[in-house]
Fold each of these.
Amino acid sequence: MDNFFMPTHVLFGFDAILKNKTLFHNLGSKAFIVTGRHSAVKCGALEDVLNAISEVNTEYVVFNEVTENPTLSTVEKGSDIFKKEKCDFIIAIGGGSPIDAAKAIAILAANNISASDIFNPSLYDKAIPLVAVPTTSGTGTEATHYSVITNDKTNTKAGFGSPLIFPKYSFCDPKYTITLNPLVTRDTGIDALSHLLEGVYSVRRNSLLMPLIYRGVDYIVENLDTAVMDPTNLEARALLMQASLWGGIVIAHTSTTLQHSIGYPVTTEFGISHGLANGIFLKPIMDLYHYYIENEIEEIFDNLGFSRQDFYLWLNRQSLSSPRLKITEEFIREKAPEVLASRNMALNPCPITLADIEKLYRGVMR
Ligand SMILES: [Fe+2]
């Protein structure tokens, strides 16, 4: 049985925040704004949020300490300040890191649990209302119930999912993405592309999602180069943001697969961005899955009007590699079993063995 569930109210378009500022009234009288150090200021999103909430007489506290790969310690600190300041709701501005951190804060601040309990949704039953303001086009976290947090006590990156953390509202304004540099634009776009493709790969694939997937892949392939070369091209930026949102909606239903799991150790070990880590394995994963779900994969390209080989040529032009990627046999010995043990292995369209994962890593050795 196919199902479609998306409880987030999405406001998509230019000046989405200012045009819909009265919605903040529904959430309380004091906002806790979660961001990183710089990007929310640089892209203008923080200014829009502050203008909007001051126009509706909402008080606020800014917590701008979220870094890339947000940690449990940051989440704990944010939750403590949220409670001390007696805030009512959270506004998360940024790429995946601030929004994911805010989702974790929303859980920790609302429940009487310890920080590491956020990874176990059976231990809690409420969350602080959350507003998401994405400033990249990639993670799709503005439309998911997932959060990925690094446990800095164990140095592992772990995700959790709970319907409680679907944002209440997501304000998606493409103008915030025009300040992204070409590499971030490319890597986040590739992350969104992975999410859309995993909607086809996952055994939870769902026919209600297919129009979003086909159109989303098309938007990325047709517009990513434009946005990389002409960052202020608002039309391309808007289409990429739409594709990213759809990618989020897709994985909220299908979850991710080996395509994501295999990239996580590459991110933590070599400091390679999440999107690029996915991108490095896009072709080998598609090749691997194609043997098992040829029709499903070919249908993507039938709908797009270009071949899988054309897609590979396009991928090749994206130069998805990094000099920091230094995979060794020792890395493979340590990480391949971790990947095999990840929760989403059950969602692959075919059985995956340790040898498959080792082979994928060896295939991208330099
Ligand atoms: Fe992702």
Amino acid sequence: MIEDFAHAWRLYRAAETRLPTPPPRHTLPATGLATGLREILAQGLHDAVILDAWGVLNLGDAPIPAARDAFAALRASGLAVRVLSNDAGSDPEQSSARHTRRGFAVAPEEIVFGLDLLAPTLAELGVAAEDCVLVSPRPAPRAAITAPMLDLDDPRAMDAAAIAFLSTVGYTEATDARLRALLRHRPRPVLVCNPDIVSPEPEGIAIEPGFHAHRLAAELGCAPTFLGKPFPGVYAAVMRTLPGVPAARVLCVGDTPHTDVLGGAVAGMDTLLVQSGFLRGRSGAEISALCAEAGMAPTYLAPHL
Ligand SMILES: [Mg+2]
């Protein structure tokens, strides 16, 4: 359903009214073009590096080869490393095992997900898991909270207090129709644990929960609550795991401007935008122009990690 990069970019631009506002744009500095992470680390400006995974470390199940050496150099630097992911289909242990198998040894405690905010957000809303509808294949991650949730086709779903949207795996026209019927019957919080609109696949571009959430928002007037990047809550969560580190001494690496650059910039961090994922095949000049038209400027731009 996503035709090409230009289509995906238009979708992100159209969603900007529901995304955080970028901080005042600064000109891409002359030093902003980097060959990769090692060159940036050599400047000694950072105490911690937050890595996006998909499009930075891997594309599909395949590791991005150049990222392995950069990751090894990052580990050798001794800086704190976190992976900040919008993946809402894995538990930290599964994700850690996958990254490690691909050549990126990351401990479960070093991974922060938007999905981590689901339980506290439901608690804030006063909604029990048993009164929340789950949009995800089963078994879903975070079983303690997702296992008791209602399936979309459960008769009790019609009046459930909230909807947790984790994954588009298995999402069909029928899923979409049922979700719309629920929201027309009774507006209620929709917690979107993966705000990404698209994700780059080894071949083509896939649709993620953010795609449907923004469409529902535009067409039904509902206001989804986004729990992952680029929204501030998940950055506060990752910073709680980095006590004593100021945001200005954090480098945030990612492949998607409206996810990784926007979120990192709003959180007051430096950002490294890599061309190995969503932006593959685009020139540096084209990427700078695209970011500028969206009011964003990554601190650094590099071909890969
Ligand atoms: Mg990514």
